[in-house]
Every structure is written in C-alpha cells, then in structure tokens.
Design brief:
1174 residues; 7-stranded mixed β-sheet; 9 helices
C-alpha cells in the first residue's frame, strides 16, 4: 500500500464538482495549523503535463487562516502551451508548425482561501474538505492563473496523486508527488482520501512502491541503505537524505529520495544540468535534439518553431537560418523556405533554390456550401471567430454557390484570397460601407475585411505543400489580437481542395469556450468547404499556359487567370486567346469583381442625370451642356465647357470669357489678374505687378492680388531707374501707378520703406551697398569695427585699421551711440578712448587686427605701445614690462609695478609678483638689477637649502647632510660610506681602514681588531682570513701568522701550535706530525725525524717511543722498529716514560738460538740430540 508520505489518489480530487459548489454562498475557513510541505514529482517520467512541468518541485504553504500557496522551486525555463485551437492539427503541417509556448510562472500565485458553505465549522471533516478544495484550486490554477473574480483562466482538470480525469488534452492519469519536508506540526487538515492516514515525510523506500505502470518507476527514485551513498538514477537528483543512525555499520545514509530532473535539464544522478542549446528534455527525461524546423536555447523544455522568415533543415538547431534571397517562410516552424514561380511553390531544400526567379500568378476556384464538420449544419463561427466573407457572401450558404475565390499568389508565396462573382459581396465600393453615403450600414463588412490571406508551407516527409494562415497576421484587417479565425487549405484529389476554418486563441479563458473546445452538445467548431480549381494552378498542379480561364477571369501570360476587374466583363474561354477582359461601353457600368455578364446601362436621360465613360465602375458623369452661355452663366461670371469633366465650368483663375467673341476662356493680359469665374480682368493695384499673361488672383494665398516686388524694388509700368526719393511716412507724395508690369531695385544708399512708395535716402551713421534686394533693403548701421569709406558716400564701408576701433555704446546698435561720435568715416586709437569716454577702462588695451570692435586688454606682463599721432594715432601692440616689474591681467594701467626682494616675476612672465619658490632666494641687490636677473629668484647654492617661500637668503646644510645640486628645499643625509662634520660642506668618503654603515654620519669608525679594508667609502670592514690577523684598530690589511702559529679567521692574534703539531708561516690550522716524526715542543714550525733506536708509530707524536722487545731501529724516521733477525734478540727500549735507544739486536750466545724465529726477545738453549746405536 502506498503510504501517506505520498499524496495519494483522492487527496486532491480535481473534479468537476469542485467548481459546482462555487455558486452557493461561501464562508472563509480558519483555525488551520500553519506550516509547509515540500513536494517532489516522482512519476510518471518524461511527462509533458503543464502541472508536472511547472511544479516539478513545489512548496505547499498552509497558513493559520487556511490559505493555500504553491511556490514552484524548479520551474525556470519550462514552457507550456500558450495557444489553443479547435483543430490544432490544422495550424501547420505536422505537430510543430504554428505552435506557441509561454513560460511557466516564475513565482507563487496569490494564496487560495479555503472556504465552505457552512456558516460555522462543526467537525474536522468540514475543514478538511474546505482545505482540499483550496488545494485543488491552487494546483489547477497555478499554470494559467485566475481572473479578477477568482475564476479559472484555463482550468487544468485532474487531481493529485495529482489525478487527471477526462482532460481533453492530457487524458486520464495521475501525477505522483512525494513529501520530502514538513513543518506542519499537526497534519489533521491534510489527510489521505480515507481520512485515516495523516500525511508525513517519507520514512522508508517502500513508501514509493506502487505496482501500476507507469508509477512503478517511482520506487527507483528511493535508494535504501545498501546503495544510498551512490548516485541517483539517471536524470534525477538527491532531494532528501536520511542519515544512518546505526553505529554497527559504516553507512552514512539510511535512505535517499531522488527527484526527477525538471524539464530542460538532465543529469547522471548527482545533480541536474541544463540541456545544451538545440536540445530539450521533459521531466525526468534525457536531452534530445530539437526536430527540424525548431530551435532552442540552453535549458529548454520545448523546442520553439523557427520564426517567420527563417528555417531549420536539420535536427539540433541552435539558431534558425534566414531564408535565402527571393524565398520566404511565413508559417513558423519551417524546415525549408519556399519560392513561388507563376503561383507554383518550390521548396529550397537545405537553403538551395532553383535559378528561376519568383513571379506572381492568380488562380480561380469555385466553392461548395460551407458546413460545420461535426454536425454537417451551418457554420456557427462568429464574434472574434467570424468569417467575414461567409457572412457577407450570401451564396456561400446556398447548395450551389455562385461565389468564386481568386487566389493571387505572390512571388514570396503569400496568397491574397478575394471573393468574386457573388454580387452580394464582390463590389469593392459597396455604398453600404462608405460613411459618406446615405446607404451606409456599419454592420456590412467592407471589401477589404472579407478578403483573406494564406501562405504556402512545405511538409518534408511527404514532400507536399499546404496553405495555412498566421495567427496574429489576420486574414482580414480587423481580427482581435488574442483571438483569430484560422484557415487551412489542402489538396484532396484531382482539381479539388479542402478549405477549413477554425478558431484559435492565446487567451486561456477563451480557450475553454466554444468554438475552441467542446461545448456540449456540439464539438469544437470546424467549418469546411470544398474548392474546385477552375482556372490557374494551386497546390502542386503542373504549370500549363493553355489552361482555361473560367468566366469572371481572363488569361494573362504573366499571372494565369486574374479576376476580372470592375468596369469590365470577362466571359472566360478554354482558348487563352479568347479569355480576355472586355471594357464596359460608354453609358454602361459594372461594380463587381469577377463579372462575366452584360454591363448594366446607366439609368435615365436629361441634364440632371448621369452617364459614364468606357470601363466605368459607376455612372457618375453629368450629361453635357457644350455652349455654357445662358443668362444664368453670364450673370454669374465667365463659364466655358470643360472636356475633361464634360460639363460647364467657371473659367479658371487668370482667365476670362468674352461671350461676344469667343466660346473659350482667355488669359488675362500683363498687369492684370482675375479670380475663378470673374467676368473681367482687373489691373494690379499700386505697388503690385504682373509680367505675364494669365495671372490668377493670389489674394487667398499671399494676401495680394498680383505679385509684390521683391523687397527693395518698386513696381512700374515701364522699365526705368527707381531713383525718385520720398520722405519716410509720406506715402501720398510719391504714389505708384496701377497695372505695373515690371520691378526695379532701389539704388545704393537708398531703401524702400513701403512697397507702395518710392526709394528713401539712408539716415546718418547708416549705409546700404548695391541695388536693393529682399535681403538688402535696409540701411544698416555702420558695423562695429568699420567706418565709411567716405563721409559723403553711404554706399561702402571698410574695416578700422590696426590699433583703432569703432563700436556702439549699446549692444543694440539702434539704441547706442557710435564711438568715435560724429565721425562715421573714422575709427579711434585705444589710448585715445580714455579721453573720449572719460574713463580709465581702456588704458591697458590694444587692437592688434583690422576691423576690431573692441580694444582688448594687453596680456598680463605687458603694457600698450602707441604709434603715430592725431588721426593716425594707433595702439596696435603691447610691450613687455621692464625687468623686475609686473602687471597682472586685471590691472587697468599703462605702466608696470616693481616686485622687490623675496619675490619674482619670471615664472608668471611678468604677469604677477610671486614669492620666491622654496629652494630659491632674491636679495635686494639682485632685485635692484635692470638685467633679466631681476625677473627670477636665484637657486640656493650647492650644500645650502631653503624650505620656505619668499626667502632673501639660503641656509647651510647641517652636519651629516649635503645636496647634489643647486636649488634644494631640503638637504640629503650623507649616504652610507660617507660623512661630514661641518655644516654646508660636501660629504666625504670614509678613509681606508674605516667605515660608515649609517646615513647622515658625522665621522667614520675605525675597523675593529681582526678586520680590515683598503678602500674608501666602505660601509663595513672585511674579516681577516684564516692564517691572518690584525691586532690594531683601523687596519688596512691583515698580517700573516708566523711559523708554528695559526688563526681561524677574523682574529686579532695567532695561536701557538701544541706539541705534536706544527704549522708553517700563514697557516690557518696546525697539522699533526706524521708517523715517523714528532714535535716535542709547542709552536713548532716543522716536525723532527724520529732518531735511530726509537720508533714514532702514530700521528701527533710529542715524544719518541721505545722499540718493543725483539725489535730494533737503525735509521732515522722509522715509524716502527724492525723485528730482530733469527738467532738475534732485543730487550727493547724500556718504558715509554724513559725510553732508551735500541739501534741493533744482540746475537744469541753459543748453544742458544731462536729456533728459526725472528723478533725474539731472548734465545733458547739448544738441547743435545741423543743417538742410539744398534
């Protein structure tokens, strides 16, 4: 039996009855034990269910006031369907095309309140049932949410285990979750279906043992003690580890629960990683390549159809490819792009198209009665899913419709589908659709709305084509954004096609209603009509230019069988030469597309009726009066017959009609004008002119009847120089004539203040050059920086010379006085401005260029320099201040000021007097010089310094310091190896035999005994080498140790060698005397040879050793005494403390011998041998 640790079959019975009670009054339930459960989805694997995808791992929170909240823990990147259609198999070719996906909610939805129909809770079962219903609603509404009234946007019917019951998409099955964590202290509010077993966290692997397929796989997700330390099954990951408390084994884990990897991930049992781009995975499944026509980003749970204009020809695509040039893919999910040539589609396999360019074509089809496929009754698609053409074209509802459809296939394989031949809908200018017509009816669809649009798409497995529509790219121009009526056209057999209409929506609420889903007693609405190709080629037919074009169309070598246009009749024919379009004759018309009969005759006769020209769509031409000379016309003005409009029209503006002499309108002569229909032409008013015939009255456009001369010119009857002058404002004294035909410009030095008068002379201090123009009709003030060339001539100006300026006392020249005053042909020197304007404002200025409007200040450090006198006086340059003096840029003065001691002018180029910089000084003597020395402070001499500014002298460096150059603000400590003991002097190198190992030293230190150095500027002394010594301070070299003595290094004396050792002069250590020698005294320079009669057997012998008994020594330097020969002996040299010499062995006495042995200390008596006689 499945334990309570798993949410079992009836825990959340998401049944239809759960929503049935919602209509009754409800009350909020409270008093729950708050806390949360963590749920992990465990079965079935590779599930595409939206709940399983979006809630693979979920936390279920129950509040104390009985509100339920679900928080997804592993939903990132998972997608669920976002488009619903009554016939999803017709959205594209195959299950991929034209699909639409949306991402799972990233966070929790709002809490669901547990409610009951009881006013008060009387038993725990009522609260349990209320919480169950809240859990039902939380799971069922998580993916697509609730509306503002708490109703499902799109209810996912089913339950937890989660149990699905009769879901139209996913069928009947359960979603199984395991409880892996719990913080609810009392689970009385969440029980099993039998209300006996409380829910609890999984306690053993048998809790996941369920024998039915596909739930039996869940037991593999729990690893018991024997394998709990290993990896989870493939495509799952650890979600719950229970430690092993048994101390008798070495296992770490009692059991481990594994959760299925979320959609878009996979793993090998230790964790889940995102699937790479170009692949996808379902819950607990492996990463698989996306099929052709789709792509995916990393971590995708679904593959997205390639967008419009792209394709993917192979599986596992990361990014779709753009269609090749002159090809397209409108329907998302294309495996190949298509190109249409004369209406016939071609697939560009793997991006390769033929060399034939695209071209359009039109085909004609007839239709059958439209019926609903589920009931064979009339089509009920309406509202957002209305088929406007079906609504308006009345014959489509008849048993034998006269309606035909014209399929115009563009080169990119998009198809414009236009209803023709049915007079109820084939009139593009139906008066009922025009708001300006009295017959307007807003319920009648305009022609543009009943036209439809489809697109060729390619199916690679069968290598076939179909026509589909795009969601969001409407088949008309008015479809709502979230709901759309779709069309699908497929080849059937022979010349027959199947046309089907159905609804599709991205609104989850609409997706639950008719016509998208079942709404008993009818099924989802799909409306169908059989099409028969009567002209042209559609869906794979072989192109054939001899194909017949039916009535209502005509033959075109470029476009096959286009629909007959309005104003024409197309009888059709099996012979392409006869399948032509015939224009309606004059006084006839045809308002319908696809018309094949006789054009209608325009109704009525007489002046108040209408007729038509050839090829007319409507009768809208007035019947004609060619004379146009009735009294009514003459009284109203000038009229004449107009061929274009075929009626009497007023003479155009600029013309008039002489009824006595002509039937035509004639142009008005020069100097006159007329408005539309004027009886006569009128002379141009004074100040206006017209040089041409046929001038229309310009008053409505320009405010003048004729043309006004360009500003600065006057209007005259004949060409002459406009030199007549008049006073400003006296307009009546120099009037101009009417009917002028030419303009002439005012001469230089004059201007035209009003277009109705003559020219006027310029006033004082103004000028105007050249003939007047619109841009040059004002006497301008002499510009600042300029003067008149001549005071008597106000026609030319020239710039002021260098050193002189002119300007106005106000920025607005019209409000200020010119400087110099009263001298328009003169400018003024900068140095003269002070007297002219009684101010010192300009004493420090100059004018270095021609045409200057202001004198500019001399730069700091300079003063103005004048040249000339009187009218030629000029201030064109500046000169430098004398040495030792300055002037800043702000001082308005013609002279410089002295600077003084402790200061300088040089760094600022005489623009300021600044204190001497640190490291420099300026005394009174230097400051008083007239040379350039007075401009800058002098650098402090070497071994002196000055740390502050404004110094008159420098300070000597203290003992132990110096400077390396001049101009120092501080002194530097003597470096290591140097010293100085007198202020203001250089640091000296330490003498040989001394050292300085610090900076800033006053004196050097003598080398200690045992050390030396023989170079200057040393920071240490060298230790005497072994075999040498120094026994005085300040040594420049070490002495060599005498023979018999030695030193070990850095010694101040040499040590004597011990007895038994010797040392030559300059020895680092004493050497032991070798065997055969000895040294009886210390401080030996050499070892003595061992004398005869003695032996010296070892190293470092202090004294000779005696010969042992049985030996002797008869030469010097013996290491050991020699054994006595046979028949000799020796008594030895005695004690080592008092040895005696043994230089020879003693012969054995007679009667004795050594029995043939050597090295004997005594001889043996020879025994006599006894001989026996026989």
């Amino acid at each position: 039996m499945v334990r309570a640790a798993v949410l079992a079959a009836c825990l959340l019975a998401l049944a239809a009855g759960a929503s049935a009670a919602a209509a009754a009054k409800t009350y909020n339930v409270g008093g729950c034990t708050g806390g949360s459960l963590k749920l992990e989805y465990v079965a079935p694997r590779e599930n595409d269910d939206p709940i399983a995808k979006c809630l693979t791992s979920v936390r279920l929170d129950l509040s104390s006031d009985c509100q339920v909240t679900l928080t997804p823990l592993q939903s990132h990147g998972s997608h669920v369907p976002g488009l619903w259609a009554a016939a999803p198999e017709l959205m594209g070719v195959g299950p991929i095309q034209n699909t639409h996906w949306i991402e799972c909610p990233a966070g929790a939805r709002g809490p669901i309140q547990a409610t009951t129909s009881f006013a008060s809770i009387s038993n725990p079962g009522q609260r349990l049932e209320a919480v169950r219903r809240a859990l039902i609603k939380a799971f069922a509404s998580h993916v697509y949410g609730l509306d503002d009234y708490g109703n499902y946007n799109y209810e996912l019917k089913g339950t937890l285990m989660v149990k699905r019951t009769g879901d139209p998409v996913y069928g009947d099955y359960n979603l199984w979750y395991a409880v892996t964590e719990n913080t609810i202290t009392s689970l009385d509010d969440i029980r099993q279906d039998d209300d006996i077993n409380k829910l609890s966290v999984i306690e053993r692997c048998s809790d996941l043992d369920y024998p039915l397929v596909p739930y039996d796989d869940a037991k593999t997700l729990c690893l018991d003690n024997a394998s709990a330390d290993g990896a989870c099954p493939v495509n799952s990951y650890p979600v719950m580890m229970v430690p092993d408390l048994n101390e008798d084994d070495e296992k770490d884990t009692a059991f481990k629960v594994c959760g299925l990897c979320p959609a878009g991930t996979a793993g090998v049992g230790f964790g889940c990683t995102t699937c790479p781009a170009g692949t996808y995975s379902m819950v607990g499944g492996a990463c698989n390549d996306c099929p052709a026509g789709t792509y995916s980003n990393a971590g995708s749970s679904v593959c997205i159809p390639c967008p419009t204009g792209t394709y993917a020809s192979a599986p596992g695509t990361v990014e779709c490819s753009a269609c090749p040039e002159d090809s397209y893919a409108y329907i998302p999910g294309a495996v190949a792009c298509v190109r249409c040539t004369k209406g016939v589609p071609e697939a560009c396999i793997d991006g390769e198209c033929s060399n034939v360019a695209s071209s359009p074509a039109t085909s004609i089809v007839s239709v059958s009665n439209m019926v609903a496929t589920s009931s064979n009754s009339a089509c009920d698609l309406a509202g957002a899913f209305e088929i406007p053409a079906y609504t308006k074209c009345s014959s489509w509802k008849a048993d034998a419709p006269e309606l035909q459809l014209a399929f115009r296939v563009a080169g990119d394989c998009s198809i414009q589908i236009s209803p023709i031949t049915d007079e109820s809908c084939a009139d593009p200018t139906d008066p009922k659709t025009s708001e300006d017509n009295d017959a307007f009816d807003p319920a009648v669809h305009p022609y543009g709305k009943i036209e439809m649009r489809g697109y060729y798409t390619y199916e690679p497995e069968g290598e076939t084509f179909a026509i589909r529509s795009l969601f969001g790219v409407q088949i008309d121009d008015y479809t709502p954004k979230d709901s759309n009526v779709m069309l699908a056209i497929d080849a059937v057999t022979g010349n027959q096609l199947s046309l089907k209409f159905f609804g599709a929506t991205t609104n989850p609420q609409t997706a639950t209603l008719f016509p998208i889903v079942d709404a008993l007693p009818v099924q989802p609405e799909v409306c169908a009509s059989t099409l028969r190709v009567t002209g042209g080629i559609i869906l794979g037919a072989t192109p054939d230019i001899d194909v017949s074009c039916p009535a209502g169309s005509y033959f075109s070598a470029k476009e096959l069988c286009p629909a007959c246009p309005v104003g024409f009749s197309c009888p059709g024919s099996d012979d392409p030469e006869q399948a032509k379009f015939v224009p309606c004759g004059p006084n006839t018309y045809n308002p319908f597309l696809g018309f094949s009969g006789e054009c209608q005759e325009c109704p009525g006769l007489g002046l108040d009726t209408y007729t038509s020209y050839a090829a007319a769509q409507q009768c809208d031409v007035d019947r004609l009066d060619l004379a146009c000379d009735s009294d009514d016309y003459k009284e109203e003005g000038s009229f004449a017959y107009d061929q274009a409009s075929q009626q009497c029209q007023k003479c155009a503006a600029g013309t008039w009609r002489n009824y006595e002499a002509s039937t035509e309108c004639e142009p008005c002569p020069e100097g006159t004008y007329s408005a539309e229909g004027d009886a006569t032409c009128t002379a141009c008013p004074a100040g206006e002119y017209n040089p041409l015939q046929g001038l229309a009255d310009q008053f409505e456009i320009t405010g003048f009847h004729c043309v006004v001369c360009a500003e600065g010119s006057v209007a005259l009857n004949t060409a002459k120089i406009a030199d007549a002058l008049a006073s400003v404002g006296e307009l009546g004294e120099n009037p101009l004539e009417i009917g002028a035909t030419v303009c002439d410009a005012c001469p230089a030095g004059t201007f035209l203040p009003d277009y109705r008068m003559g020219c006027v002379a310029c006033i004082e201090d103004t000028y105007r050059a050249g003939d007047a123009t619109p841009e040059n009709n004002v006497c301008k003030p002499i510009p600042a920086g300029y003067k008149l060339v001549s005071a008597e001539d106000k026609t030319a100006i020239e710039p002021c010379p260098k050193g002189q300026v002119s300007f106005y006392t106000s920025a607005n020249q019209d409000n200020g006085d010119r400087v110099p005053s009263g001298k328009p042909a003169a400018c003024m020197a900068c140095s003269a401005l002070a007297q002219e304007l009684t101010t010192s404002e300009w004493t420090h200025t100059f004018a270095p260029r021609k045409g200057m409007t202001q004198c500019i200040p001399c730069p700091g450090g300079t003063i103005p320099a004048n040249t000339g006198s009187g009218a030629t006086l000029a201030t064109a340059s500046c000169k430098a201040c004398p040495n030792g003096q300055f002037r800043d840029a702000y001082t308005k003065s013609a002279s410089c000021a002295p600077c003084g001691p402790g200061k300088e002018v040089g760094p600022s180029s005489k623009m300021s007097c600044t204190m001497c910089r640190a490291g420099t000084y300026m005394n009174a003597t230097r400051a008083g010089k007239t040379t350039t020395d007075a401009n800058t402070c002098d650098l402090c001499p070497i071994h002196t310094y000055r740390p502050t500014m404004g110094a008159l002298s420098c300070l000597p460096c203290p003992r132990g310091t110096q400077t390396s150059n001049t101009g120092n603000v501080e002194c530097t400590a003597c470096p290591i190896g140097y010293h100085n003991n007198q202020a203001g002097t250089i640091c000296e190198a330490a003498d040989k035999g001394t050292f300085v190992n610090t900076t800033g030293a006053y004196v050097s230190t003598p080398c200690p005994k045992g050390t030396w150095n023989n170079e200057e500027a040393q920071d240490n002394c060298n230790p005497c080498a072994p075999s040498k010594y120094s026994n005085t301070f300040g040594s420049t070299e070490c002495k060599t140790c005498a023979a018999g003595t030695f030193s070990a290094g850095q010694s101040s004396f040499c040590s004597d060698c011990r007895a038994g050792y010797f040392a030559p002069a300059g020895a680092a250590a004493c050497s032991p005397c070798k065997p055969g020698t000895y040294a009886p005294e210390g401080k030996s320079a050499t070892c003595k040879m061992c004398p005869k009669g003695y032996q010296c057997p070892t190293n470092a012998m202090k004294a000779v050793g005696p010969c042992p008994k049985g030996t002797f020594s008869n030469k010097e330097g013996n290491k050991q005494c020699t054994p006595c020969p046979t028949n000799t002996y020796s008594n030895g040299g005695g004690s080592p403390l008092a040895p005696g010499p043994v230089m020879a062995c003693i012969k054995c006495a007679p009667g004795t011998n050594t029995r043939g042995l050597t090295g004997q200390s005594k001889c043996q008596v020879i025994r006599p041998q006894v001989k026996r006689l026989f």
